[in-house]
Amino acid sequence: MNISVLDRFLKYVSVGSQSDADSATVPSTPGQTELARLLAGELKDMGAQAELDDDSGIVYASIPSNVERKVPVIGWVAHVDTAPGVSGSGVKPRIVRSYDGGDILLNPEQGMVLSPAVFPELADYLGQDLVVTDGTTLLGADDKAGVAEIMDMAASFLQNPERPHGEIRIAFTPDEEIGRGTDAFDVKRFGADFAYTVDGGALGEIEYENFNAASAAVTVQGSSIHPGSAKGRMLNACLVLMEFQGMLPAFQNPAFTEGYEGFYHLDSLRGDVEQAVAEYLVRDHDRAAFERKKEFMQECAALLNRKYGEGTVKAEITDSYYNMKEKILPHMHLVEHARRAMEAVGVKPEIIPVRGGTDGARLSFMGLPCPNLCAGGHNFHGRYEYVPVRSLEKISAILQEIVSGYARYGLEPPSQGHEGTRR
After folding, report:
1. Per the residue annotation, which of 167, 176, 199, 207 is the catalytic one?
2. How confident is the model over 244-293, as pLDDT tens digits?
3. Which of 166, 168, 169 is nearest to 189 (CA)?
């Protein structure tokens, strides 16, 4: 039975699978296991070899090659969890047919409107069908659109065995949104030579550069004294923490940066006179600039310790992931195959830097070069999330064309004389 990529997507978003950073289980929530089990079952029903690893929550699957010559084993990776910031339970998607270019009323009771005045990229989808939320939850296109597109690609090859393809590997990971997506990923078991994550944004995106990333916890130890007798004795931890924040470059924060520009992001703040803690995300595409940002935070802490006393301020900085560019550059056939495939199905490729990270970044440093491709959605992680149906269909076609391209051309696709676009 043929199931459309749209039907797959609508089915998968109906399973609540938010990840939970406060959970110690793997996966962090039972809904992820439910969806993973569903996907493993569907893959088996299609004719693929598939299993859910109970310890890691990862689905591993494979489709044997049907060509005699040796071609690279290409893997495909997407994550089953949705972001924890906005509810992903009870998702009620709605299809807006032939979008007319105006405001889309998501929720009459709340007066919530998806408007091109706020989201001008909606104009790119005039006349297309859009899948939107009801304004009470996120949609889950990050990354259930990627899941649906990979599943649709797999189904297409399994239902049409005359189409030549090399060995195809598939993995669906949990807890990507809380940074644990590849913690237990077994690259050897996966068995791919190269892979793609399908976890990007708008149709046409190809990403092989991402932020170097670290998290920082800045803790200030103060001294609480009754304010009536505090002169010369009180050290207000909140004020010292504000002083630390004031030392960071004002325009190096996400609200003022784009493209390759890095930032310090104050992600949370809590405390009182006695103790205050700030948590930061530190990001930069350039490794040297990234290291300098971390050094500068330590210098700020050291200066305040000289001012207020040793041990007043402690900055604990932990690296999260690194720019996969250095691991992809020796294997640029991955980018060229993706670009050729997009052009072959009538999509204009755009090579852009990721202002974030993907499972592919960590996998690349684990020995599996793994750039990221578009999943097709917009406004991820929120109630204004939407995905064009045409994008779902086109991305499935792109994935199929990449697989076919490796079967036809091996590592080096023919040059089409196009450099694509960069932004």
Report:
1. 176
2. 999 999 999 999 999 999 999 999 999 999 999 999 999 999 999 999 99
3. 169
pLDDT of residue 418: 46
pLDDT one-digit tens code per residue, 111-132 = 999 999 999 999 999 999 999 9
Catalytic residue chosen out of the listed positions 81, 175, 336, 359: 81
Q: 110-122 burial by CB neighbour count: b if 16+ within 10 A, else e?
A: eebbbebeeeeeb
Distances from the Cα of 51 to the Cαs of 44, 54, 55, in angstroms? 8, 9, 12
Closest residue by Cα to residue 321 from 360, 353, 371: 360
CA proximity to 290, closest of 212, 220, 370, 208 = 212
| 373 neighbors 77 (Cβ within 8 angstroms) | no
User: Is 81 one of the catalytic residues?
Assistant: yes
Predicted local confidence at residue 421, as pLDDT: 47
The residue whose two tokens read 């991305």 is: 395
For CA atoms 242, 245, 250, 252, give the dihedral sign. negative
Candidates 121, 158, 186, 179; CA nearest to 318 is 179
- Run of H or E including 405: helix 389-409
Residue with tokens 């802490």: 301
Residue 143: cis peptide before it, omega within 30 degrees of 0: yes
E strands, 275-422, are 275-284, 313-321, 350-354, 372-374, 386-388, 421-422
Q: How many residues are there in the chain?
A: 423
Q: Beta-carbon neighbour count of residue 408 at 10 Å?
A: 15
224 close to 276: Cβ distance less than 8 angstroms: no
Element (H, E) at 270: strand 263-271
Each residue's pLDDT tens digit, 306-324: 999 999 999 999 998 999 9
152 is catalytic: no
Question: How far is Cα 32 from Cα 17, in angstroms, rounded to an integer?
Answer: 5
Place of tokens 């051309």: 409
222: confidence class by pLDDT, cuts 50, 70, 90:
very high
Contact in structure between 392 and 327 (CB atoms under 8 Å): no
DSSP 56: T
